[in-house]
Predict the structure.
Amino acid sequence: MTKRKQELIKDIQNLLNTYEGVSQTSINPALLEFMDEETLIMIIDSLLDQKEDSKEVDTKWLEQFKTK
């Protein structure tokens, strides 16, 4: 496995571990080894999109508590 793929897999694991209230995730690199770099990058993009979407929902929810 290339160093770049190892870094991408580590990035995926780190992104998964940024969710509050979720136990630490550890990915066996062998499970993602068969994927090419493009696929791993797509997974990272998808995780980032999910995080952004959840922030938007949280922001909208918090807006209701603003004093007018």
